[in-house]
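ingest -> validate -> predict -> emit
validate: passed (alphabet ok, no gaps, 227 aa)
predict: started
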Amino acid sequence: MNIPQHIVLFPDGNRRWARAKGLNTLEGHKQGYNNLLDFSNWCKNRGVKALTAFGFSTENWNRSKEEVDYLMKLLERCLLDNLSEYDKNGTRVRVIGQRDRLPKSLQEAIKKTEEATKNNQNLFLNLAISYGGKWDILNAVKNIVKEGIAPDQIDEKLFEAHLSIAGLPAPDLVIRAGGEMRMSNFVLWQAAYSELYFSPKLWPDFTEEDLDVALSEFDKRSRRFGK
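emit:
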């Protein structure tokens, strides 16, 4: 089977899952993060080398203060509580997005996690927190301008080196759970030629077998890159 080297994941539907079960919507986020940890291991065991997962978008700041505060604490706790799990599975963790907007305690948790996992090589896990595809592109442009690079020296390779997931292969497969069928301002440049797979399942219900179905579908695709 042709296994994608880099998967992008939209773990969508956590709140809808919780409502359907009569739970507080915040419980859905907790279950969703637990499923993300399992998903990363499923990917690693199948030979996937990189996984980029949407955790909190630039637009999510518009949610209620209660939910935002809960998500910030959840992300912090999950990073720190799973350090030994990341190390055991050989997972290197990196957070992409607007770090300066995050609570100081979460920023410290991110630094600690990245430092502790920097030598792991089995799977590269990018967690997108306060991330948006448009922000990523604009941020790359600003950094190129700051560096004083002449316009005639700017090509796709140089531009990509200034994006958040620089150094990794372009995503081969985008998986979106939850029944929605859009890119929602995520890795807009990087996913230009990614294969798209949409699952109707809400993210907490997404299983290892569902991943295999997505990988089987990817294996059937003919990737011509415009040729």
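The CA atoms of residues 152 and 207 lie 48 Å apart.
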